[in-house]
Amino acid sequence: MTQPSVILATASYDHTIRFWEAKSGRCYRTIQYPDSHINRLEITPDKRFLAAAGNPHIRLFDVNSNSPQPVMSYDSHTNNVMAVGFQCDGNWMYSGSEDGTVKIWDLRAPGCQREYESRAAVNTVVLHPNQTELISGDQNGNIRVWDLTANSCSCELVPEVDTAVRSLTVMWDGSLVVAANNHGTCYVWRLLRGTQSMTNFEPLHKLQAHKGYILKCLLSPEFCEPQRYLATASADNTVKIWNVDGFTLEKTLIGHQRWVWDCVFSVDGAYLITASSDTTARLWNMSTGEEIKVYQGHHKATVCCALHDGAEPSPS
């Protein structure tokens, strides 16, 4: 099978993962996933594998094969895996789980390489663009920075006590971090390099984005420059697009009938894909706010999506 230039995958409470032709909306491959529901999908930087985070394992599937079997399973979490992602060269994977831990996995060796204790269910983990710090958010409202070089927690923040941090996102150049919580609020910090290697958080903005839960927040990618956007997907069935310059509301994407769980930008920031409890995923034009395509095929809530439409990374 030749590799499609655009890889779009969705996962649903119907225990399937689906791969879609982004332009036509045709589902060309379905993987049955009977063991658990899936919380998060992520595609490796080289587009070869799709990671599915379930309960309590992470499974890696070959994007270019028709095999329903995973090529690898990562099994040392003991509860729902809520976050998964990859280092930029694809050498290692990170994960966060409701078991209260953040883990690092070397993709070239079996087993978990490192583990950090958050002492509360971890809902979200992002990798700083410097590739040496992981930032996690948990159910008790803590945000922690894990310094991979020093192998320790270098910073702790609690934007709102006892309010779960649902989603974290970092600007591609490492200048901003945004945390979204269960009260519909986004906290924005400037990230400053301190005199040590440690990152300092300088409060920049508090945005009351939605009345309901924010389930996902996401900053736009590098090739979207000079425009910088923040997307917030919510339990109020909408996705809002904010201009990062002043955090003014640019657009509200209206079309989903139920909670919007996940969203992902195209590599140039011109499009956004969203996943919703209404069983669909949708493709939106960012400049007009119009819905271009509906991906229909799941028969229960579609809770996560992953997209890789970038060029192949050059071999290092």
Largest beta-sheet characterization: 4 strands, antiparallel
The residue ranges in which pLDDT falls below 50 over 5 or more consecutive positions are none
- The number of E-state strands comes to 28
State the shape: globular
Helix content: under 10%
CATH topology: Methylamine Dehydrogenase, Chain H
Distance between the termini: 25 Å
- Looking at this structure, what is the CATH superfamily? YVTN repeat-like/Quinoprotein amine dehydrogenase
Q: What Rg is obtained from the alpha carbons, in whole angstroms?
A: 18 Å
Q: How are helices and strands ordered from N to C?
A: EEEEEEEEEEEEEEEEEEEEEEEEEEEE
Per CATH, the class reads Mainly Beta
Average pLDDT number: 94
* Sheet with the most strands: spatial strand order: 3-2-1-28
Q: What's the structural domain tally?
A: 1
Q: How much beta, percentage-wise?
A: over 45%
WD repeats: 1-30, 74-108, 115-156, 207-252, 253-294
Main location: other
GO cellular component, one term: TORC1 complex
Subunit structure: The target of rapamycin complex 1 (TORC1) is composed of at least RAPTOR, LST8 and TOR.
What report would you give on this structure?
The protein is mostly beta strands and 316 residues long. The chain has one domain: Methylamine Dehydrogenase, Chain H (7 Propeller). Helices cover 0% and strands 52% of the residues. It is built from no helices and 28 strands. The protein has strands at 7-12, 16-20, 27-32, 40-43, 49-53, 58-62, 72-74, 81-86, 92-97, 101-106, 112-117, 122-127, 133-138, 143-147, 152-157, 165-170, 176-181, 185-193, 199-208, 214-219, 229-234, 239-243, 248-253, 260-265, 271-276, 281-285, 291-295, 302-308. The strands form seven sheets. It has a four-stranded antiparallel sheet with strand order 3-2-1-28, with no helix packed on it. A hairpin with a 5-residue loop joins β18 and β19. The radius of gyration is 18 Å and the shape is globular.
